[in-house]
Design a protein that fits this description.
The termini are far apart. The chain has 303 residues and is α/β, with parallel strands linked by helices. The chain binds threonylcarbamoyladenylate and magnesium ion. Threonylcarbamoyladenylate binds next to β5 and β6.
Length: 303
């Protein structure tokens, strides 16, 4: 349960430069005051994340956009107006308010207003921007419950605001609006089709470009077990084959590979002691695009 006093506690910890994990509609974030360089550095330390991977700044109000970005193109205004609060991160030119520690030295910043009551209360009571990556160790599966955060980060986080399970379940869609042509850098909780409707054009999903997106590393969002992606009709057969070879296998269902269930299902499979997770690959439409993207990264070769 989260009451007014836990919100007060979370705000005062942020103000003192501490780390607060908080729920959003996508996944839990590991938050720090975006204008406190030492607090931002602590995020990288706790996550084990390379320092040049930029963080998203979370805002309590779409109107805050102007003070965190030095130029807001029309497409950005339209998207913010239509989809914020919501599972959309906009990459914009940064304003002077944005620290190098947050952007990894890049001239752009990722901004988003999450669509979650508790997150919005926290952000509004805090009053500033909260830099937050997903609240998991670098490269692992993102947390969609407060328990996941506790399991991953334990005492390394000063406070966890418990908002139950995340409704969307995959990270925000990231759209780079710094050039005239908006481009999707990471498919996510806002379907590509909805962006295309509003922008009235097709959007490209760019795998890699001049900006660094940590989710684009080959292996990412990965459970401990090896992941085998297969067309749905083959899933049972492949699981049987592996079992016949003496392997411990977890077989996910079509329902397990929907956005709200994906990460919890991968975690459960790990907890069952599986060496292999056999996964029916969903169709890449709507939220299936983000789910398939995460599954490909979970299945990618590990270094
Ligand atoms: O749904 C979400 O986006 C969650 C919740 C907590 O808001 N956050 C999240 O953060 O997924 P993280 O750090 O795990 O992923 C953010 C992605 C990273 O891949 C990062 O590289 C990219 O956003 N990013 C941030 N700022 C960027 C920038 N200026 N240019 C390009 N990519 C950027
Ligand atoms: Mg992440």
């Amino acid at each position: 349960m989260t009451d007014a006093s836990s919100l007060d506690t979370a705000v005062s910890i942020l103000k003192k430069g501490g780390l607060v994990a908080f729920p959003t509609e996508t996944v839990y974030g590991l938050g720090a005051d975006a204008e406190n360089p030492a607090a931002v550095k602590a995020i990288f330390r706790v996550k084990g994340r390379p320092e040049r991977h930029p963080l998203i700044v979370h805002l309590g109000d779409p109107g805050d956009l102007a003070s965190w970005s030095s130029s807001v193109p029309e497409s950005a205004e339209l998207l913010a107006r239509t989809f914020w609060p919501g599972p959309l991160t906009l990459i914009l030119r940064r304003s002077r308010r944005v620290l190098d520690e947050v952007t990894g030295g890049q001239e752009t910043v990722g901004l988003r207003v999450p669509d979650h009551d508790l997150a919005l209360k926290l952000l509004r009571a805090f009053g500033g921007g909260v830099a937050a990556p997903s609240a998991n160790r670098f490269g692992r599966v993102s947390p969609t419950s407060a328990d996941h955060v506790r399991q991953d980060l334990g005492k390394d986080v000063d406070y966890i605001l418990d908002g139950g399970n995340c409704g969307v379940g995959v990270e925000s869609t990231i759209v780079d609006v710094t050039s005239g042509d908006p481009v999707i850098l990471r498919p996510g909780g806002l379907p590509r089709e909805r962006l295309e409707e509003v922008l009235r054009r097709k959007l490209e999903v760019r795998g890699s470009g001049p900006v660094r997106v940590s989710g684009q590393l080959d292996s990412h969002y990965a459970p401990r077990a090896a992941v085998l992606l297969v067309p749905p009709p083959e899933a049972e057969g492949r699981a049987k084959e592996l079992r016949a070879q003496g392997k411990r296998v977890a077989l996910l269902s079509v329902g397990d590979v929907t956005a709200p269930n994906l990460y919890a299902s991968l975690r459960r499979a790990d907890e069952s002691g599986a060496e292999w997770i056999v996964v029916p690959l969903p169709e890449e439409v709507g939220l299936g695009l983000a789910v398939a993207d995460r599954l490909r990264k979970a299945a990618a070769p590990r270094s």
